[in-house]
Amino acid sequence: MIVCIAEKPSVAADIAKVIGATHHHRVGRNAGYYEGNGYQVTWTFGHLCELKYPEDYTPEWKYWSLGRLPMIPQRFGIRVKQDAGIQKQFDTICQLYAAAEEIINCGDAGQEGELIQRWVMQKAGVKCPVKRLWISSMTDEAIREGFAALRTQQQYDSLYAAGLCRAIGDWVLGMNATRLYTLKYGQRGSTPLSIGRVQTPTLALIVRRQAEIEHFKPEPYWVLATIYRKTTFTAVLKEGERGFRSEEEGQRAFAAIQDVPFTVKSVEKKNGTEAPPRLFDLTSLQVACNKKWGYSADKTLQLIQALYEKKVTTYPRVDTTYLSEDIYPKCKTILNGIGRTTYAPLLQPLRGEKLLKRKKVFDTSKVTDHHAIIPTGQAADNLLPEERNVYDLIARRFIAIFYPDCKFATTTVFGQAGDTLFRVSGKEILTPGWRSVFQKEKSEEEAEENENRDEERTLPTFTVGESGPHRPTLQKKLTQAPKPYTEATLLRAMETAGKAVEDEELRDLLKENGIGRPSTRAAIIETLFRRNYITKTRKALFATPTGVELIGLIKEELLKSAELTGLWEKRLREIERKEYEPQTFIEGMKTMIGNIVTEVLNDNSNRHVTAAPNPTDKRKKQAAATADPDRPKAKRIRAGSICPLCGQGKVIKGREAYGCSRWKEGCTFRKPFKA
């Protein structure tokens, strides 16, 4: 028998249907899998296994003590999560694995998906051959193609190694640094001061931006302009200068031009083209959704994951905006699929034409495991309103890449009054091209971008040498403080290790050194909210007093520098490409935490965090003492909420316990009512 294992019950159901495993075992000892046509298809609920807790290695590590730091196991081990439903499903998996002739790993095609399944196989003691299903969408066609081209597990050993190094690195730093800083600087009886490999430098970014805003002192400057033929011209000053630094200087310039005519010196007209916006990777999609609708990064991830599982979009956890060249022949079919809906008018100009194939879109060298997020061409019916919003963004981007460039004309007019040179620019759209795909509305992102570029308008016709009266103005302005981070701008900062980069190509180069992975950045931001380290006012993110004090206490740049953390991320990517040894990375993390422990223990400054996190009761404190600092806290169970086990069904209330609405599909979630 061939055993297939997916990451969720819903994914297992889709795979089982395609390969003919139609009998669903729902009850008894054999519950938790499909069977038929020589296959058994089972599932995990995300992570069934996890790295062992400190006390699993030695009882002494259960108790927090500075004298027991650093905690470095000689060999890291894994355990099954302490949950009855998870243990039951794990037992089912072990039963199937024990009799399997071959196993097909159908986990999500990414680093985390590989880690989840490898740990389960390791804990179950798998001895039989293992194949890997690697697909970028959940359509029936993609599943069939994937099973026709199964890969060997060995092809993904480096992917697993990178995921394992990431998990071990997070354990070494999180477990040790959290105890270290809590015991050294925390308030007695307060909640732990959580330190994380990615979490802490992300918090540091917010704290530093907040400090820049708080300490910013606005400086006045004076802008000289003049109105000629109902058009406002602005004085041209030295490069980098916004205006005159003193009012007196501005007044002198104003007086010098007040009674002299304005003369047009030159008129420059240039035609240009603008390519369509790039396709979405996960980060750019999260940025767009935050700017357009205020969706959090986590919410956008949930929505795009739902679209993926509904088979209408491709794999979401990607960090590339490119498509491999083998996707191009399939594009017409995809367009025909989405063209049966409201997008039909947008596709009409493409009918009967050969689809454009841009190098900035189709470049196999820029694609590793997965390509950019695009529609699958499947009917996008029965979508929730918020899912529809996200799908619309993806669909329109995909349609736009096949439209011609936007053609525009830029006119720049220079004029002079006295010795002062003035300038005005205008931009006129000649042929909208791809812009017609987005004509109905202009996004907030585009509106912000337009603030810093020439207004899209047609200027009056000016002739070189013409002259006439004008009306000068001198306006006082103030320099502006940096804007607080939003989730959109914070995601960009995490992507570029804190560097402010607008150019898309340069940003691509910096992704290698970004902090966190696209799939984990949303969770990191949510963790900061849960720890009461940051808060949100409208879209703006601010550090709480606890968050500010925590970063102020940390003197070790290794813990809070986005650039240094970015270098660790680069190493993890190199491990994935077999360019760096995993053991070297792990040994480096061990050395680093040893040095940090020594430095903190030698700190005699008597500094402490005075701003306490959210108050908590005794039971919560006890739980926090043994908890993984970077693991999300369990959500409160309510009827109607999303099932915490399968993530698909809704929580329903029975007579004695809560359960999942998808119990018929195999979800084993059950939580008795509290006494």
Write the topology of this structure.
Layout (H helix, E strand, L loop, with lengths): L1 E5 L2 H11 L3 E3 L7 E4 L2 E5 L5 E3 L2 H4 L20 E3 L3 H15 L3 E4 L5 H14 L5 E3 L7 H9 L2 E2 L4 H29 L13 H16 L5 E9 L2 E5 L11 H12 L3 E13 L7 H12 L3 H13 L21 H8 L5 H4 L37 H16 L5 E12 L2 E12 L12 H8 L15 E2 L2 E8 L8 H9 L8 H7 L7 H13 L3 E4 L2 E4 L1 H9 L3 H4 L1 H15 L5 H20 L16 H9 L24 E3 L3 E4 L9 E3 L3
Describe it.
With 675 residues, this protein is an alpha+beta fold. It contains 22 helices and 21 strands. It has a seven-stranded mixed beta sheet, with helices on both faces. Helix 10 (297-309) crosses helix 13 (385-400) and helix 15 packs across helix 17 (518-530). It is globular. The protein starts with a strand and ends with a strand.
Question: Which key phrases capture this entry?
Answer:
675 residues; 38% helix; 21 strands; Topoisomerase I, domain 2; 22 helices; 7-stranded antiparallel beta sheet; alpha+beta; Rossmann fold; Topoisomerase I, domain 3
How is this structure best summarized?
The protein is α+β, with helices and mostly antiparallel strands. It folds into five domains: 132 residues, 3-Layer(aba) Sandwich (Rossmann fold); 169 residues, Orthogonal Bundle (Topoisomerase I, domain 2), CATH 1.10.460.10; 130 residues, Topoisomerase I, domain 3 (Distorted Sandwich), CATH 2.70.20; 119 residues, Topoisomerase I, domain 4 (Orthogonal Bundle); 40 residues, no CATH class.
